[in-house]
Structures are given as C-alpha cells and as structure tokens.
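hi!! sorry for the late reply, been swamped w classes. u asked for the two structures so here they r. pasted raw, havent cleaned anything up. first the sequence of the first protein and right below it the tokens
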Amino acid sequence: MKQLGLRLNLSTKKTRKREFLDGMERVVPWSALVQVVERYYPSFRVEPMLRIHYLQLWSALSDPAMEEALHDMPVFREFAKLEDGVMRLPNEMTIPRFRHLLEKHDLATADLATARLRVGNDILQAKGVMMKKGTFVDATLIAAPSSTKNAEGERDPEMKHAKKGNQWYFGMKAHISVDAHSGLVPSVVGTAANVNDVTQAGALLHGDEGVTFGGAGYQGVQKRIEAQGPQWHVAMRPGLRRKFNPFIVPYFDTLSLGKWSARVRAKVEHPFRVFKRQYGYTKVRYRGLAQNTAQVFTLFVLSNMWMARRQMIGSR
C-alpha cells in the first residue's frame, strides 16, 4: 500500500512567474486602485477581483481559462488573496462582469489610470527618472480575428485593413509616446489599423517636449503641429534612402544622421516588447475598439510599472 504524504510544499525554487508577481505586488498601488473601484463595486471582494483582472491581462487568458488557472495554480490564488476554503473562487461569469463594470464607468482609461499613474509618476519624476523633455512616438499593429464564423457572420466592423511593407493586416493600432529619458509610456491612443500614424501625433504630445523623434510614417508632421511645437526628427522614407550614394559626402552625412536617429528611436520598441512578449498581447480579445483600447491602455500602464520597478521599489 502506497503511503500518502502530508502534502507539504518543500520546494525552495522561486519560479519566474512568482518573481514577476512579487515585483508587481510591490509596485502596483493597490490601495489607491481599490479606493477608486469600490465606489462602483461596493464589495469586500474588490481587491481580489482587481488582482484577478490583472492576472488575466498578464497571462493572456480567456475567462474560462482564468477560472481554471485559479483552481489549478496556488500562486495565482495567493496573489489574488483567495484563501483556500475561505472564499469562493470567481467563475467565468463573475470575471467578465467585473471587467464590464470597469468599462461601463470608464475606470479602465480615466479614474483608474489616474490612480495607477499618480503614485508611479510622482516617484519617478521626483527621482529624475521621467524627465518629459524628449519624446518618441510610434505605433504598432494588433491583429484581430478575420474569420466570419461567428453569430453575426461578419468581421468586427470597427477593425480595418492596413498594409505594412508587402503584408496586409486586419485589426487595430496602438499609438504611443515614450519618454526619451526613462523609456516609459505617458500616453496611448487606440485607433483602427487604417488610421495614419501622423494624424495621432498631436494627441500623443503633452506640450513640454524639447525634441520629438518619429519614424517615416510621421513625414509631414511639422505641417500638422503648431509652429511653437517641439523640434521634430523624422526618419527618411526607405525608398528615398535607397537612392542615396554613401560615397558622396552630403549623402553620407545624411545617412549617418539617419542611423544615429534610428539608434535613438530604438528605445520606443522596448515598451512594445513588454506589451507583446512579456504580456503576450499579440491579438485583440474582444469585439469593438473601446474594449480593446481600454485593455491596451491598462497593459501599457502596467508595463510602465514593470519597467520602473527597481526605481519604485528603491524609493519606497
């Protein structure tokens, strides 16, 4: 007869998932967030539901998969403060209801974002991490399901087609600005994929920039932004750059300036890496631009906290 153990967890290994959750536990201002949400969700389960909402975003899980993860993974229950046998675990119907409540009261993009950023940005500015003197602007495409095998028999009407290079994409765009000193994201705008990058440049700036960098998609931005705006450094279009002869001095200087600008602009790609690789957000999860924009906004704010976790933990 096989002898049963006492089911004690004797493992001392700290997994990457646990390290990630421990870091977010320390940098996310949970008390400020709970004070904002509990006005619309008067329940003792506000903080657990908010933690589950973030776990779902970080892990790229659907509502049924999130319910199963809470049952299967003790580290998720520990992070969500769901004590075994004391509190009933939320199911796949409760989880989306909480998310819809955030969307209904615009908590995902307004009050909740303000509460999230108030603590983080104040600390970062006080320590000189976020300077807000230089800005990068860029956009990334996020795919949407192109299949028509659904109840309506059609694609999402708010998602559009766009061509990048020789490849066509269907979905939305996330336009962001990135602080040149810290690499953090101060502003986010969500649009359909066919919206030109240059049309959203003004909405991404806060007005105090001394210099702004943009890719070739921002050609002509100086004509759209007021004359007293920031100094712009916009990349040359690839077709024009290929016509230059690097052995002629004026062309060589222009190409050298373009390479330097590209190395500087590369800093804008790091938030996209965290957004798409760390959090696994490569495809929209809902129908409609508003819901997906709210989720994109939340993920970039959480990305800021993740990228600045060492400064925030050190300041505390």
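now the second protein. again sequence first, tokens right under
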Amino acid sequence: MSFSDEVRSRLLQPSDSGNEEPVRLPTRRFVDRSFYEAERAEVFGRTWLFTGRVDEIARPGLYMTWEKTTVPLLLVHAVDDVIRCFYNSCRHRGAPVVRVPRGRNRALRCQYHSWTYDTSGKLVSVPDERDFVDLHREERSLVPVACSLAGGAIFVNENPQEDLGSWLGPTVGEMSSVSSESLRTLDQRSITIPANWKRVLGNLLAAPLTPPRPGLKTMGTTRSDIQALEGGHIRIITPFDEETAVALGLENPFNWTSLNDEGLPSLPNLDPIFCSTATTYVLSPNLLVSFTPSGVLSFTAWPLDEETTLLDATWYAPDWGEEDSPANLPAWSQRLEWTQAQLDGIATTLESAQNEMKEPARQGLSLHYESEAFRLWNESLDARLSEVVPADTLTGAAPGEIRSPLKS
C-alpha cells in the first residue's frame, strides 16, 4: 500500500481527538539564553541545514556567502562542477575570504593580505611567500564544511552524524515525484520577527499551509493527517473541504488525481496527493515545504538570538529558461502577495509574544490536539537536547517543578 493510500485510509476513519490532556511547553524553552545556546550547538550545529538551491550558483565559478546560523560560510560552485562549502575565513589571519554576498571568480582572494585559494579550497598563492618560514600550502587550505545535494537543494552540516540521504529518510521516496532538479528560484523574501524561533514555527504549524490556487478566491480544508517520520521530520496532509475539492476538479476531497493550476506550467509527474491536498513536510529542524501543481513553497526559520527570528519564504517554479520570469503573471503575483501577507501576519501575531513569555506567572504553552504537529516537532528537538538541558525544560514538563540550572 502506498503512503497516499495509507493517508486516505486514516483520514476516512472517525476522529478520536478531543480526549487528550494538553501537553505543556515550559516557558524557559522560549526565553532562556542557555537553552538557546544548547539549540545552537546540538541542533543547528549538528544537523543538515537547507542553504539554497544549485540554480543560485548555477555555473562553475559562482559563489555565495551564507550566515543564517551566524557562522560565516562560503558556498562555491567549483570549476570541477562540484558544489563545496567552506568556512569563510582565511587561513592567514581569519579575515573573510569573500566579502560580497554573491560573485563569480575562478579564484578566491582574501582582501586582507591577498592569500588566494582555488575553488576547491586549496591555497594557491601567497604574496611574499618566502617570508613565511615553514609554510606548507597543503596544510592551509580553506576549512571544509560537509555539503551535499538532494534534488537540486543544497544542505550543509558542520558536524554530520549521518549522510544526507539517511537523514532525509522516507521523505526521499515520498517526494520522489517532485522534479526538484527542474525547479528554479522564483521569489525570495524575508522578515525579522521579535520572537523565539519556536514560536514562529509554532505559528506556521498551527494551521495547514494552503497557498492560493489560480481561479479560487477562498480555499477550505478538513482535518489533517499528521505523522512523525524518521529523523525527526513530520508529514502534514490536509484534504480540501467538499466545496474547494469540487472547485479544483475533484469528485470529492479524497479522490486525489493529477491537477493543473490554471494558466501556469505544471511540475511534471507530480504525485496526485501533492496536487489534490494541502501537503507540507517539516524537515527538522526548521524547513517547511509545501506543494502546488505549479510550484513549491518553503519557509525556513533562523534564530538570530533567543528573542529574534529571521523567517524566509521562497517560491520555486518550473525552470522558464531564457524567457522572462513568470513572477509578474497575475497568478504568481497573487501568490507572492499572499506570501508577504503570511509573513506580515505572523510578525503582527507574535509582536508581543516574547514579552508575554517573560511574565513571572507564565508557566508555558498548553498544546491541545490541534497543535499535534507543533508537539511532535518540539519532541524531535528534545531528542537532540535531552542530554544537555534539564528535564523541566523539555516538552511535557509539569508546571511547578523546581527550575534547575542549565548545564554549562
């Protein structure tokens, strides 16, 4: 039985929600500096992170800097056609090798003292090299960071415990119909939100993401099938309600067939479940990916500190070659306006959330059944943090426990 058949079977069964006790998220998860530092080290410092797509550095010699985790990295499309990642730090005095966000060159030259590296990271030139006694170039290459590709997406990991394919787990097979290599970045936009990154992700997980479809002014959904996957990832599949399903061309909400978006090129061979439902994958720790017949939307939340989050939203569309970008087409313009509204709405909703979490009487967030995805996601974080933070900061900790100090 395919995973889509399994999803349909579960959704057709009567819901047994409503009797569960709420699960509590302790306040300290959202305000404590030490908890944030533990996340930086154990979550963001030890997992695969999505940095962008190959089309952003599509040709050999192109490079881009990346600092979403505050660690300065450099992504390079090397002349041997391999995508590599390095710490953006010269091996002489630690100055940035590259100072501009994007560029193209067959060599990378530090502006401080002109130490020069090729695109494989090897040190190839040192001015006045005779003045550096016992200098061994092979020992002064740029320091590499693990970098791997999945369907045109670039992931990096400072301390990999497993390869990218193992980390992605079953999501690789389930999303195999998405022709990712043929996608191209259509639009990227960001917003800085004065709230802890877990509150931002929680807002996104509170309701299914339902990007607009051309020709439909409103779209309704039914209850979701939410499943935890290996690796801490989550799959959320939400059928449309009867009215929306019929408007899209379905016989009913569970008759999943291949659909097209009016007036827009379709992703080839896309699994019907991605065309006929609001489907989102949450790739731990901070990437949400949603699908439509004509494009893919991602949200990524990056903690700048324990009280501030950078939220990125990016649309990917079928490659349009040498033609003008379709971003100005009415259907895409509508989607991009919707996307900006989502970013602005989250920022408005959470503008006072961080201060509320600091109130002395506030013991945390209570998660009911409708927050199941947020609970599962927090539990996936706990799997990485449980050895380095006190038990009373973990998901489900009971109110009134003694607040133990975080480990240094």
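hope this helps!! also noticed smth abt the second:
Residues 49-157 form a domain with the Rieske Iron-sulfur Protein fold (CATH 2.102.10.10).
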